# Entry
Amino acid sequence: WKKMKFVVYDILDIELSFKKRMETIEELLKGINSPYLELCKYTECENNEHFQREQLIVKEKKGDGLLLNNPNGESLSGVNAGLYVWKNYTFGEAELLRFIYDGNEDVKSLEVRHLKGSNNVFRIYKGVGVLTKEETPKIGDIIIYKTVGEKSKNVPKMPVFVRVKSSDETE
# Structure
């Protein structure tokens, strides 16, 4: 527990630019002497190539993504208007085995099986509740999902249903 830290990356209840908010946090943290509290390190993006290099670093380290802030973006009513989240998604294919329903007969999740590699069975919760009847896959359909990596034993981390793979798509 002594290695745990609370990393502050923004303060939203003051309507200043992101850059000014970071300066404010820095000043606030100077007055707090705690080994468990620190300001998030941030780097100003120089250009598109710089951003692409940072993306590669995140992918190589199997990170979840990047938080991008407009340095002049303001906090409006407690919301960071200049924030963009880039996720390190990879895509996979799985066969739909069965539906898991909630108490109201609405589809709660999909139980699917990896097609390549492990053949592990896992569930997909996200992206399922917004499906219309026409969009709902059928048992045996091949579905496309996105994920931010693997938890363990080739089981995707936070898989999200994207769509049913069309019959005219090639391998």
